[in-house]
Structure formats: structure tokens, C-alpha cells
């Protein structure tokens, strides 16, 4: 069931118009905030608080929507007016200006909260004091952020707006849909993670690095456009000859090249593993750093290897977007099947996968991609994921 943690009749109307079924849920979230919190941050924070206050009253499987709207003049937040005088003051300040309307939306489901903010720019006409008084006398400004209702008589005060109208009214429906969709996809990936864990409970990194961060760094670099099996064979001789980062940093480049030649691109790979070893020794005292930015400083290390290192060595949330992962998660329905951009996929899966499982998920999906969901000739009939796989549903 979907609960709306808001008493606003305007939000209810918008949900009804969008044909999203809901039940209203009362909540008493604390709405106080320090003045220095910026309007955009304020609405997101308050939407989250309302949502979490509502979530305390519902079942784990339910969905709770929280929202908060503010009018902003620069850094200043204009909420609901306290009384008519306050409403007149707000409208005088908005007169003839362009201001922003922000609505924060937060959606909770199964203990996970996703949130976002929509922004619309509104240009007000220059209003006379008489026009302002007349409008305030209608009673419409009371209970409205910024003291006006664009969907009512207040629409006459507005010269133009840029962005979503429903955001100004109080609930950007497109953002609500986007966040609901994210929850659905998160459920999908949780099912996929569960199925993969059952299939490959002990799957680990296919590179045999023996627990050494430096070896994994070297092997990760060598694995570009080369099979893990070949890297494992090549590295037996490589590490026998140069067993430490110090030894590799001081090695003759031609000796490294000769050893890594079977991995392909051997000039570049030899140069980068020598230089990466030097950097590790000289700048990091031999200890592999644990942040993405620092790891990306190592020659030949891109986000894929950096994530492999963060996940396997430091057990941090990390998504290794190799070709199997990109293909299979697209087929399952986490994103468009045509999506091939590793960085985009990493970002999407980073939000959808349970953080503590993301690194293992990526190892398991490689096995699954080699055995079942192959690039060509996927074995859907024997696949445990076919019940929830979008690709299979389309094929049927
Ligand atoms: S049902 Fe087919 S396409 Fe979907 S994950 Fe399984 S093998 Fe891949």
C-alpha cells in the first residue's frame, strides 16, 4: 500500500490526477531547521523527516511518500504565512521578482529511503499594495508556501514559470514516479542478488592475488582485454621474479615487458605496473589507499580496477562494471538494455544494490554471465531469474 505522509489537499489531488493510489497518513515530524540550511537542502531534509515519521507507523512492505515545498528568494526560505500581515509582506517581497519553488520528495520502502528535489522558476508580476491586499483578503494565501496558490486566484500574480507546474502546486509527480521506479528496481536487484548468492555462494575474485593489495593492483591492470586465467598464469612468473612493489619499481622495463607479453598491450601494461609500484612505495609507503580519487592516480587504474580494489581489499561498497555485469543487469531491467556506459551503470547499480553485497554481487554475476546469461545464447529456460527478468518477459 502507498501512504502519503501529508495532509495537503493539493498533493492529494495531484496523486489522484496521476492515478497513483494512496492513503493519507498523519505524522508529526519536527519541521524546525537552522536558518543557514539552504532552501534546496531544507525541502529534501524535511521531506525525508516526514517520510521517516510516517514509516514508523506502517508495515515493512508498504511505501511512504513525504514531501515539502518552499519558496526561495536567493538563500531565504519563505514558508507558509503566520497571518495576513505576514502574507502581505511575503507577496510584497515577491512582487516583480523571479524566485524558485523547491519541492523535496522522499519515498521509503522496505527500510530504504530515496529522495530528490524539483525546482521551478517563477516570475511574478509587479503588484500594487492594493492588489496584494485584495488577494490576501480572499484567504487563499493561508497555508501556502510563499503565500500564493498558482493553481488558484494566485495564478494571476504569475507572469511566467519555467519548470514543472505541479512542483509549484506542491508535488512533482514525475519525481514521485522516478523514485517509485527506483524502489521497484531496487527490489529487482535484491532478488537478483539473492538468486546469485544461492547459485554461487563462494564466488570470489577470479584473479589469484593471494590477499596482496599490490598484486591485485598489478593483476587488475594486466587483465584489461585479457582473460583472468591467462593473467593468473603470467603472474606466477612475474611475482616470482619481482615479489614486492619495491622490486617491481626498480625492475628493468624490458624484463617486465617480456614477462607480461602474453597479456597483450605489453609495452603500456609494463610501464604502468612499474610506475604504479613506484607510486605505491614512494607516495603511499607501500599501503594501498582506500579512496577512489587516490586510486585513480595510479597509472592504468580506471574506475573498474579501483572498484575491484575497494571492494575486495577494503570491503567497501563498490560496483565493478565489467561486460557481464553491464549486459545482465540491463537484461534484468535495472536500466535500458542498450546502455553500455560503465560509469552510468556504476552509478545506477551503486544506488540499487545493497551496499554490503555489491562487491560479491559483481563477482557472482561474472560466473553467471559465463555459464547462463551469455552474451550470445542466453539459457533462459534454465535460469532462476526468468520470473522477474524483463528480457525474458519480452521474449515470451
Ligand atoms: S532469464 Fe535469460 S536474459 Fe534473463 S537473466 Fe536469465 S538468462 Fe539472462
Describe this structure in words.
This protein is an alpha/beta fold and 396 residues long. The chain has 2 domains: 2-171, Maf protein, CATH 3.90.950; 189-395, Endonuclease III, domain 1, CATH 1.10.340.30. 48% of the residues lie in helices and 12% in strands. It is built from 17 helices and 7 strands. Strands 1, 2, 3, 4, 5, 6 and 7 form a 7-stranded mixed β-sheet that branches. A hairpin with a 2-residue loop joins strand 3 (63-73) and strand 4 (76-78). The chain is elongated. The protein starts with a strand and ends with a helix. The mean pLDDT is 95. The chain binds iron/sulfur cluster (SF4). Residues 328, 331-332, 372-373, 378-380, 383, 385-386, 389, 391-392 line the site of iron/sulfur cluster.
Write the layout of secondary structure elements.
Layout: E1 2-4, H1 9-17, E2 23-24, H2 39-55, E3 63-73, E4 76-78, H3 84-94, E5 98-109, E6 112-124, H4 129-137, E7 158-162, H5 165-169, H6 173-199, H7 213-222, H8 228-241, H9 245-250, H10 253-260, H11 266-284, H12 292-295, H13 303-314, H14 323-332, H15 342-352, H16 358-371, H17 390-395
Parallel strand pairs: 1-2, 1-3
Antiparallel strand pairs: 3-4, 3-5, 5-6, 6-7
Bound molecules: iron/sulfur cluster.
